[in-house]
Amino acid sequence: MLRSMVLRGNALTHSTRVAASRAMSTQALSNPTLSNIEKRWEGMPLQEQADLWMALRDRMKGSWKDLTLQEKKAAYWIAFGPHGPRSIDPPGTNARVAWGVVIGLAASLALFAGIRVAAKPAPYTMTKEYQEASNELLKQQGADPLTGISSPGYKGKGVIQSPPKQ
After folding, report:
1. Is residue 5 over pLDDT 60?
2. Where is this region: Disordered (predicted)?
3. C-alpha dihedral over 91, 93, 94, 98, to 10 degrees?
4. In this predicted model, what pLDDT tens digit does every residue of 75-90 receive, in sequence order?
5. How far is residue 64's CA from residue 81's CA, in Å, rounded to a whole number?
6. d(Cα 166, Cα 88) in Å, to the nearest integer?
7. Is residue 150 within 8 Å of residue 144, measured between CB atoms?
8. What is the spatial distance between Cα 50 and Cα 113, in angstroms, rounded to a whole number?
């Protein structure tokens, strides 16, 4: 018996909640509230925006046939319109981005050239002659005899990676 009362109590509270939400959403929003929403939306206070969206959301929970054309347009515009993160960039944004990229590339090129000018010369181990001598030493020592420089039929360059000395 207690169980049936609890279940009935839950059903009553649920049905009461459903009826209350239906009562809220059955009344159409006024046309002055929705008129020219595209131009007014950005200037509206956040609380008013939230209230309007919640009222439209409650209306959309019911049958969409009951929505007025103005409500459908307002709901679509609020959900997908060019405002907030989807707003259109102000004029000149692309030019500013392009100039920023050009300035960044120029600065990095200047830094690279400055480092190259101020750098010490390449070490003596980075000449082709030194690396060929290293190859000969590796062959004499029998380094990597299965697949490397000491293996029969090896056709690779070994450790040579630099151009000849000028």
Report:
1. no
2. 141-166
3. 140
4. 888 888 888 778 888 8
5. 20
6. 58
7. yes
8. 55
Q: pLDDT confidence of 103, banded at 50, 70, 90?
A: very high
| Contact predicate 127/165, CB 8 Å | yes
Q: The whole model's pTM is what?
A: 0.43
Domain residue ranges in the chain: 31-86, 89-119, 122-165
Q: Which residues of 33-71 are buried (b: 16+ CB within 10 A; e: fewer)?
A: bbeebeeebeeeeeeebeebeebbebbbeeeeeebeebb
> Rounded to whole angstroms, how far apart are CA atoms 113 and 62?
68
pLDDT at 67 over 70: yes
Task: Classify 120 in phi/psi space as left (phi over 0), alpha (psi -120 to 50) or beta.
Answer: beta
What is d(CA 66, CA 24) in angstroms, rounded to the nearest whole number? 13
Q: Alpha carbon of 31 to those of 43, 50, 63, 71: distances in Å?
A: 18, 18, 19, 8
For residue 135, give every residue at least 6 positions away whose Cβ sits within 8 Å of its Cβ, in sequence order, or none: 149, 158, 159, 160
